[in-house]
Q: What sequence folds into this?
């Protein structure tokens, strides 16, 4: 993976130059009941005349989905778990909102030709619907970073083929997108993503090994879904984000770095060949990057707390510690290895995080499961060039089985 990835910035810049971009109006939200889904719906509720919500989706939370659909005045509500069709239908009876269920229905909802689809499903489970949205064209506001980790090259090829306009929602990537706006790829020296350091930033290895579920779920700066909160605690989140950045921006893997910044005010720094460093700042609130992805190239008003640097007083930065947070090294290795390695890593991590959340393994076991799965996958010839989505799905499935065996051996 030493070549520069395809340039999202150049692509969007070209679209802008052609005057083809208009503010999105009709939107669908995949994963509407989650943290990103809630932030998106909150933003929309502040300017309801500017948006028309077509579909909202969720996996299993019937009541929450029904509430989202009613509040947003959505045309359709889709539940991934087929067995919950009748329950959702009952919840929405008399509203006129169309009800659908099942994995195919999720993809069909994602294929609706809307102005913008917000991809906010968590995990590789969001890949098929996200690809369905990409193939329809229009704008994809991508929060679901696991799509780019698992299927990066293939996903970006789909984006290019469909002429989909991909806008990152992840705060660091939204920051990089803004900072890189006018940049020529040759002028970029380095992209540095910041990390809060999570709840264990100052914990010793011994303390981390005894950490409980509730400790990992106590993020200092962000309120997010459980999976990404645990990823932030292990710092795997930043590893996933490096891979995400590699696919989004025109840089090589050695031009990507990370810096721990406990205040989460500076989200990304870009160094240029002339020695300039440009950074983006904002209060840690996902409504800011979501607003950008919905309204770009305009900026919509967002009801977030305004940044007051005098109040923040101090912005501090430190190096990430790869000894206490081995996920950083593991993810960098997988990024450099390329091919199917990131898909295997992501699948193993999803399994390990789920096992941790169920109380079956400890925090240090998460990285250990991921590393052992990668080793086993290498031994069995699973780490190879990635030739398409079927390769990604196949590797994802086999890596999950391997990770499951490793988890069971730990218990
Ligand atoms: P969440 O757990 O709060 O919500 C996940 C959503 O996905 C829910 O609506 C759920 O019903 C749906 N879902 C879960 N499993 C599914 C499946 N198998 N099939 C279909 N739908 C399914 O997650 P979140 O924190 O909102 O994160 C969503 C995505 O955005 C993740 O990829 C995360 O890494 C990324 N992200 C989140 C934040 C944040 O602040 N929460 C920030 C940056 C990036
Ligand atoms: Mg992020």
A:
């Amino acid at each position: 993976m030493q070549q520069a990835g395809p340039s999202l910035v150049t692509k969007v810049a070209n679209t802008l130059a052609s005057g083809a971009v208009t503010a999105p109006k009709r939107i669908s939200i995949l994963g509407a009941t989650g943290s990103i889904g809630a932030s998106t719906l909150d933003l929309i509720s502040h300017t309801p005349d500017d948006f028309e919500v077509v579909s909202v989706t969720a996996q299993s939370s019937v009541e929450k989905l029904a509430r989202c659909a009613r509040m947003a005045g959505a045309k359709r509500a889709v539940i991934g778990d087929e067995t919950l069709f009748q329950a959702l239908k009952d919840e929405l009876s008399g509203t006129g909102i169309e009800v659908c269920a099942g994995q195919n229905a999720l993809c069909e909802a994602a294929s609706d030709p809307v102005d913008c689809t917000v991809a906010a499903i968590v995990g590789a489970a969001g890949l098929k619907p996200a690809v369905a949205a990409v193939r329809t064209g229009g704008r994809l506001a991508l929060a679901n970073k696991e799509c780019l980790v698992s299927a990066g090259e293939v996903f970006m090829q789909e984006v290019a083929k469909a002429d989909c306009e991909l806008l990152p929602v992840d705060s660091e990537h939204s920051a990089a997108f803004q900072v890189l706006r006018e940049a020529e790829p040759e002028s970029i020296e380095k992209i540095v993503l910041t990390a809060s350091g999570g709840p264990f930033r100052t914990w010793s290895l011994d303390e981390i090994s005894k950490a409980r579920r509730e400790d990992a779920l106590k993020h200092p700066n962000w309120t997010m879904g459980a999976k990404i909160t645990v990823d932030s605690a292990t710092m795997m989140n930043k590893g996933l984000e490096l891979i995400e950045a590699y696919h989004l921006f025109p840089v090589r893997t050695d031009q990507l770095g990370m810096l721990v910044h406990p205040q989460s005010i500076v989200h990304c720094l870009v160094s240029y060949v002339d020695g300039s460093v440009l950074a983006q700042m904002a209060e840690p609130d996902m409504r800011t990057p979501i607003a950008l992805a919905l309204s770009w190239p305009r900026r919509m008003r967002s009801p977030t707390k305004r940044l007051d640097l005098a109040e923040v007083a101090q912005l501090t930065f430190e190096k990430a510690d790869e000894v206490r947070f081995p996920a950083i090294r593991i993810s960098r290795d997988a990024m450099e290895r390329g091919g199917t390695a990131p898909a295997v890593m992501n699948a193993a991590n999803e399994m390990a995080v789920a096992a941790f959340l169920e109380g079956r393994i400890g925090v240090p076991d998460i990285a250990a499961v991921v590393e052992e799965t990668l080793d086993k996958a290498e031994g069995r010839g699973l780490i190879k060039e990635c030739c398409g989505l079927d390769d990604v799905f196949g590797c994802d499935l086999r890596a999950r089985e391997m990770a499951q065996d490793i988890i069971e051996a730990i218990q």
Summary: The pocket of nicotinamide-adenine-dinucleotide (ligand 1) is lined by residues 31-37, 58-59, 61, 80, 106, 120-122, 125, 143-146, 170, 222, 224-225, 227-228, 286 (CB under 6 Å). Residues 143 and 169 are 5 Å apart (CA to CA). Residues 10-24 have pLDDT under 50 and may be disordered. The first strand starts at residue 26 and ends at 30.
